[in-house]
Amino acid sequence: MKLYDLTLSGNCYKVRLLAALIGLPLELVPVDFLAGDHKRAPVIELNPLGQLPALEDGAVVLRDSQAILVYLARKHGGEAWLPTEPEPLARVMQWLSTAANEVQHGPADARLVDKFGLPLDKPSTLRTSDFILPLLDRHLATRDWLELGRPTIADIAVFPYVALAPEGGVSLDGYAHINRWIARIKALPGYVAMPGTE
User: Which of 6, 50, 118, 154 has the highest count of CB atoms within 10 angstroms of its CB?
Assistant: First the structure.
């Protein structure tokens, strides 16, 4: 199983983290993003959007970190990481949407501006961060994990760009529940870090 990977990408890290937590070996294929290799073969043939990550599992080729998390959880992680019953499944999936929307357009995009110089609307990223982080902190005030009383791919999807928020000038000071949740994730057996989450 090959993961076309960028070390500094939080979306690639989601896949590496889940694989580590479930004990799934991955062959990492580094992609030179600055050289534009994500816009050339073989990556562009695997993901026409020219984005990372991309996963190749035999004849199965998938793009998008959330979709890859679902695939790996269902194929290798069992009910623990992604349940099949309708309500708990939906509860997990709603956080995958949050990861792809509010977290991406808030702390993740703020990091793209500050760390990588992308010409995004920084004030907009801060407004979105100021919306989603208090909501997340309130949610975690009454629970250890995002849903179901245990770690699921909901936590894996949301964690990286929240933990990396300070790299985009988004402080996590004052978010005690988020910080405790981050510490719980880091304490999971098999946890691996990425640069910025140490």
Answer: 154
The listed CATH number (2.40.160.20, 1.20.272.10, 1.10.10.10, 1.20.1050.10) that belongs to domain 80-186:
1.20.1050.10
Instruction: Provide the pLDDT for residue 172.
Output: 98
- CATH 1.20.1050.10 positions along the chain are 80-186
**Per-residue pLDDT band at 40 (split at 50, 70, 90):** confident
Ramachandran sector of residue 150 (left: φ over 0; alpha: ψ -120 to 50; beta: rest): beta
The DSSP H or E segment spanning 2 is strand 2-5
* Residue in 96, 95, 122 with CA at minimum distance from that of residue 109: 122
- Kindly report, residue by residue over 17-26, the tens digit of the pLDDT: 999 999 999 9
